[in-house]
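re: ur question from yesterday

yeah so i grabbed the chain u mentioned. its 359 aa long if i counted rite. heres the sequnce exactly as i have it in my notes:
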Amino acid sequence: MSDIRGCFSTTLGDFSLEVDFTFPARGITALYGRSGSGKSTLLRCFAGLEQCNGFLQVLGDIWHDNDTSRFTPTHKRPIGYVFQHANLFPHLSVKENLLYGWKRIEPQQRRIHYEEVIEWLGLEALITRSPEKLSGGERQRVAIGRALLTSPQLLLMDEPLAALDVISKEEILPYLEQLHRHLAIPVIYVSHSLKEIVRLADHIAWIDKGRIIAAGSLSQMVSRFDFAQENEDEAGAVIECSVMQHDNNYHLTELNSDYGPLWVRQLNYQEGEQVRLHIRASDVSLVRHRVEESSVLNILPVQIEAVAEPVKGQVLVRLRSVHNSSALLARITQRSCEQLQLAAGQQIYAQVKGVVLVR
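ran it thru and got these structure tokens back, copy pasting raw so excuse formatting
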């Protein structure tokens, strides 16, 4: 299947967008950056809502090509668009909102079915309600369902959790993870929250001042020194693991990773299930020799791949296992780095003091 590729150029007052990209045809690609970086403008270009010069090809179909004066208007693009606010029709029930787009799709073009969406988003108990009787998280779930029932080739999501409080965000995130498992269509997801992206995304396009600074897989991007410096306390590695066994005695779960066994607080997952971990750089310390008597359960043999330049007395160190797995990051003091005489290529041990389960 073809990728999503294109380029856009536009100017809005003092702001200019100049991007050239190729995104994967499956999975969630996060457009990540600070407020005002151009994420939503780029999303509007995908939808045909922004006047711009450029080219866009989605899964083999050309939607925009300035060279041939080709432009598919928004209403003819097979997209689903989810905004920050749900924008449901207040005079329609949840079911009627969901069916609004579905009824306008020819039966032979319906690739996503009503019953599937109800199940994925947990909407069964809501379908008779009116939008005013829903919580913020419930309204967004309905808005996502309505977008999906247009059977889009591309789903665009513009900070869909930004208007929600913390409780509502936690309520809706498991449903977004459920969609991630079931959807075969690509999703472009705008966010300035690294916590959301680490939990949901497969790929990241990092945007600043209307330019894509870098793009790649989630694990590649979060292990970049410049990306980590940008995100400070949240900087760290993303590791994919599988559940090996549970130790009910000590309420622990053993995970299988490219770095070897990892022990975490007991998880409610079956053996063999996949999980994603976020290991913050600030939770990783380094020692030259393995410490046998330690309260730290996870002490991993690693090789130093690179050592960043010091910033305000802090140093980032990128680490790999012998399997050349997703990189780990450690943030240590400049003094410790110099005392240990750390350099690329050295074999050392990483002590992982904290692990956060993200999905």
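noticed a couple things. The chain has two domains: 4-222, 236-357. also The chain has a mean pLDDT of 92.
anyway ttyl
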